[in-house]
């Protein structure tokens, strides 16, 4: 658990190097073309970029420790407030998506694992490869066009004020799109987890004592394959928070991912810095949680 | 004994390791077919890069949003009217191009008539004159504009087929170049960390954990925001700098395994230097891992490039990639012009599927123990 401290320091250093050193002087970005040297000097002073790199790094570390990343360059809104308001919509889409995707993928993978080696298995695997090779953009564009625009089963885009309105209205199509995109790669991955287990001795023992195949797979194998599956789901979580930006952008969901895209488009550095640091922290926390979960799922695993 | 003799005979035929790999690979039918498909795409990309194919992709050869040829043939009469209907409205003509700022400009001029200022002139006058000139020349060339384009035309009347070819060049070459660079970085770091161990290993492991604790696409976007530049070279740099981590981990593990093997100890005993052991002795023995990773990352980076270009952070506006085509296709679809999207999707799906199947076959042949 303590080894995540140097990692976090590294992330801070990396983000600092990127934005304060590679990124160049933000004053010119902010001031735009119509500005005089005085204005630029003024902005530089406000941002603290006229100080030494060491002093700037100290300012950045203080920002992280206090959780106060200042205000957005584009809108003037406090960064912490942007986060607090954008997290809810992101999770409203992400959690149902992750849940449905995992359940479907595990069930389908178990089914395919029972058919391993057969023609159906091969056909499904090739279909998954093809499905994976189509860009996520195409899925979003086509499903939005067909289901929302042509058939009008769902609202095309937007976001409501209340949770039920969002969950059972605006979030439905985004969740469907997310599940469709994630299903093929997850199905392949989980199938390989099941196949790894199927050749183990305990499976042979279970067969020898005459257990039905369904029980062997559904109880014995599923339990042992749960460790890599749970890890996979947990590891996906922080990445999805920012990684769902395409879905959030297309469906105009005011989430974290859309905020990242907007910030990149506007060169709104404080927001990008804050998102990167927060998500890195979330990743490290989830890594520790995953390790603890390992131990709960498999008593043989010892943490050192 | 027989086996030993057998292998002795094999050696006398002078079939090297890679010869054996090729023999094994040729037996994999799916792998061979996908290899051929990938090679065709590479040839298309190279032909386009050298100007043999699709060098005139940006020329406006057809009417705006002309449907694909097979459609206009099938629906001869209605298809034709449909094609000319919207096209006639959008085709650039002398009269339809007007200065959008003329109203504002007249107002400004009206305000300043009291004090006529020679400095105030239409800032877009030059651009407008050029556009008008181009419009004239293109209307003169309209006679030879054809509606017989395999995949139809885009908003500006450019041939979608040629555009897709050009997009193949950009997307595939960016994918391959960034994969090559990322593999180089990952292999180098992995070799140093795994072979030397100790402090160097700690350092690279730390670097690895730093890079992997930021989600891949977020890191890509952050670097794109900082660099604030467009163009294929920037995309290659971004993808390579963020994508080396997976390769590093695998190569490091291989070097950890190999550095204590007898052949490396023997090389040490006869006085081979560290560098020689790392690159001449061990590297060929872990090259199968590197090759599979290279192939795997081409697919990953092609997908990333498409997303980046779609968002406008990728290749610039003067280049075309599958991502920028999908971006245009998004609004076209609402008007019913689906062919640009279909062309880009088809090309990308075929290439990526073939590349993935090729990677699977490559892994199976290079590592027969894996089964």
Task: Describe the protein in words.
- The complex is a heterodimer of chains A (304) and B (371).
- The relative contact order of chain A is 0.12.
- By secondary structure, chain A is mostly helical.
- Chain A has helices at 4-22, 26-31, 37-47, 53-66, 79-114, 119-133, 136-150, 163-170, 172-198, 201-208, 213-243, 245-250, 256-265, 269-297.
- With 371 residues, chain B is mainly alpha-helical.
- Helix content of chain B is 73%, strand content 0%.
- Chain B has helices at 2-12, 17-27, 29-49, 69-74, 76-90, 102-112, 125-141, 160-196, 198-212, 216-227, 232-243, 245-258, 262-269, 274-311, 322-334, 339-366.
- In chain B, α8 packs antiparallel against α9.
- Mean pLDDT of chain B is 77; it is low at 1-10 and 75-96.
- At the A-B interface, α1, α6, α7, α11 and α13 of A face α9, α10, α14, α15 and α16 of B.
Count of individual helical segments of chain A = 14
Q: Output the radius of gyration of chain B.
A: 28 Å
Proportion of β residues of chain A? Answer: under 5%
Distance between the termini of chain A: 10 Å
Q: How confident overall, as mean pLDDT of chain B?
A: 77
**Class by helix and strand content of chain A?**
mainly alpha
Distance between the termini of chain B: 27 Å
Question: SSE order of chain A, as H and E?
Answer: HHHHHHHHHHHHHH
Largest sheet of chain A: none
Oligomer: heterodimer
Strand content bin of chain B: under 5%
Q: Specify Rg of chain A, calculated over alpha carbons.
A: 24 Å
């Amino acid at each position: 658990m303590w080894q995540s401290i140097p990692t976090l320091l590294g992330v801070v250093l990396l983000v600092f190097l990127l934005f304060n050193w590679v990124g160049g002087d933000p004053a010119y970005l902010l001031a735009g073309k119509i500005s005089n040297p005085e204005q630029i000097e003024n902005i530089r002073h406000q941002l603290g970029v006229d100080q030494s790199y060491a002093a700037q790094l100290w300012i950045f570390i203080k920002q992280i420790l206090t959780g106060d990343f200042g205000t957005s360059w584009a809108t003037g809104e406090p960064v912490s407030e942007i986060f607090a308001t954008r997290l809810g919509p992101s999770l409203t889409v992400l959690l149902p998506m992750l849940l449905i995707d995992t359940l479907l993928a595990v069930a389908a993978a178990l089914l395919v694992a029972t058919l391993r080696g057969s023609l159906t298995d091969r056909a499904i695997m090739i279909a998954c490869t093809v499905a994976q090779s189509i860009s996520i953009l195409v899925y979003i564009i086509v499903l939005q066009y067909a289901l929302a625009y042509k058939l009008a089963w769902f609202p095309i885009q937007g976001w409501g004020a209340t949770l039920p309105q969002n969950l059972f209205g605006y979030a439905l199509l985004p969740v469907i799109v997310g599940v469709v995109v994630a299903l093929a790669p997850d199905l392949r991955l989980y199938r390989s987890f099941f196949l790894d287990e199927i050749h183990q001795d305990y499976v042979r023992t279970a067969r020898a004592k005459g257990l039905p195949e369904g029980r062997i797979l559904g109880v014995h194998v599923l339990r042992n394959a749960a460790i890599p599956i749970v890890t996979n789901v947990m590891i996906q979580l922080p990445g999805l928070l920012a990684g769902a930006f395409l879905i959030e952008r297309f469906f105009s969901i005011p989430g974290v991912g859309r905020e990242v895209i907007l910030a990149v488009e506007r060169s709104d550095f404080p927001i990008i810095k804050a998102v990167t640091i927060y998500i890195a922290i979330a990743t490290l926390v989830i890594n520790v949680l995953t390790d603890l979960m390992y131990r709960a799922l498999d008593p043989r695993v010892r943490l050192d | 004994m027989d086996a030993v003799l057998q292998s002795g005979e094999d050696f006398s035929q002078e079939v090297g390791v890679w010869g054996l790999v090729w023999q094994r690979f040729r037996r994999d039918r799916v792998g061979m077919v996908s290899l051929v498909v990938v090679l065709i795409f590479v040839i298309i990309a190279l032909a386009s890069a050298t100007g043999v194919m699709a060098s005139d992709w940006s020329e406006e050869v057809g009417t705006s949003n002309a449907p694909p040829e097979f459609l206009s043939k099938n629906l001869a009469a209605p298809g034709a009217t449909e094609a000319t209907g919207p096209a006639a409205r959008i085709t650039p003509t002398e009269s339809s191009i007007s200065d959008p700022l003329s109203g504002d400009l007249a107002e400004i001029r009206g305000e300043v008539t009291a004090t006529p200022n020679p400095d105030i002139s239409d800032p877009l006058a030059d651009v407008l004159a050029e556009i008008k000139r181009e419009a004239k020349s293109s209307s003169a060339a309209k006679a030879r504009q054809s509606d017989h384009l395999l995949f139809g035309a885009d908003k500006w009347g450019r041939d979608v087929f040629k555009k897709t070819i050009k997009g193949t060049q950009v997307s595939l070459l960016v994918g391959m170049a960034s994969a090559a660079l990322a593999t180089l970085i990952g292999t180098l770091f992995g070799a140093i960390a795994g072979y030397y161990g100790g402090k160097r290993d700690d350092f690279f492991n730390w670097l690895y954990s730093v890079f992997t604790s930021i989600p891949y696409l977020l890191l890509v976007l952050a670097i794109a925001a900082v660099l604030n530049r467009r163009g294929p070279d920037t995309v290659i740099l971004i993808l390579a700098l963020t994508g080396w981590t997976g390769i590093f981990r695998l190569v490091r593990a291989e070097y950890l395994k190999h550095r204590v093997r007898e052949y490396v100890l023997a090389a040490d005993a006869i006085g081979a230097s560290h560098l020689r052991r790392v690159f001449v002795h061990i590297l060929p023995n872990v090259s199968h891992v590197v090759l599979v990773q290279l192939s795997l990352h081409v697919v990953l980076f092609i997908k990333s490039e498409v997303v980046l270009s779609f968002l406008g952070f990728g290749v610039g506006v003067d280049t075309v990639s599958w991502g920028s085509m999908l971006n245009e296709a998004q609004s076209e679809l609402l008007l019913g012009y689906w062919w640009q999207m279909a062309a880009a999707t088809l090309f990308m799906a075929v290439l990526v599927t073939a590349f993935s199947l090729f990677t699977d076959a490559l892994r199976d042949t290079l590592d027969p123990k894996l089964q």
